[in-house]
Design goal:
340 residues; 9 helices; single chain
Length: 340
Amino acid sequence: MNPSTATGDAAPATMRAVVVTRPGGLDALEIKDVPVPVRKPGWVRIKVKAFGVNESEVTTRKGESSPDVTYPRVPGIECVGVLDEADGDSGLRPGQQVATMMGGMGRSYDGAYAQYVTVPAEQVIPFETGLPWEVVGALPEMFQTAYGSLATGLGLQAGQTLLIRGGTSTVGLSAATIAKDLGATVLSTTRSPERAGELRAAGVDHPLVDNGTIAAQVRELIPDGVDAALELVGCSVLADTLRAVRRDGKVCFTGALAGQWTIPDFSPFMIPTGVHLTSYGGQAADLPADVFAHQLQAIAAGRLTVPVAKVYHGLEQIRAAQADVESGATPGKHVVVLDD
């Protein structure tokens, strides 16, 4: 037997959620009253307090995602909130602050654009913090991707040098703050000279203006090449990024902001001798609870900065939030808070 535990207040029968019934424009984001999801064994139910709005959810709304996305669908690949119900032997207790992200959430099953969401228990990170929900809500997917890339992908160590290609993205800014907190020297790129200040504010030691080739700039600063590089721009610049790395250094391919995920007629000899190329596309388990706790403490202490672009209050603002994400005009994370 595996009895469930629940909060003292029973969840309502219905909730408000953003539903995409068919792919389309912003008008495809419809707010509806739907049944509160019933938790399956091995899953938990979370009362959503805040969630980040991501480009992948714009892609889902447009119908441009992979075949695992079906409709109708409640989007949302991440959220933070309060645990509402869980299996009694899950190690989780109702009332806990929790974060969750990825794992098919908002794609193959309904996600976080709602007052309640159910997810597998192993996809939950419990935490305790006094930080406001709009700050914590910016973190799960962004910090999981950044931390996983640095720790799992690159094995970055204190004292090493790191190049971030695509530095003004939310993952790029997060990676810079995490790497600096670790004790690394950080070089990071932007295509716009006027955005170099954003990189410095995140702790970047050497902001670089990226005109398509940066290997020469990197080696002017570090003649032997950097120890590690995080590739977020994509395959269109990967060969140049590889040339910026020293022998026995590593490049981790995590994103393709420029849209190119593959290399036509790829030859392994494009990888410089002795340079290691890997990739990262992990899940919630790659961000351990103690690491997330450390990041929250570092934010509270002012050592880590959270690149929040804008905060929206209520599901009614979801169209505005996705429009802002799609425009790319405001750098940083866009966060929706569900006020009680």
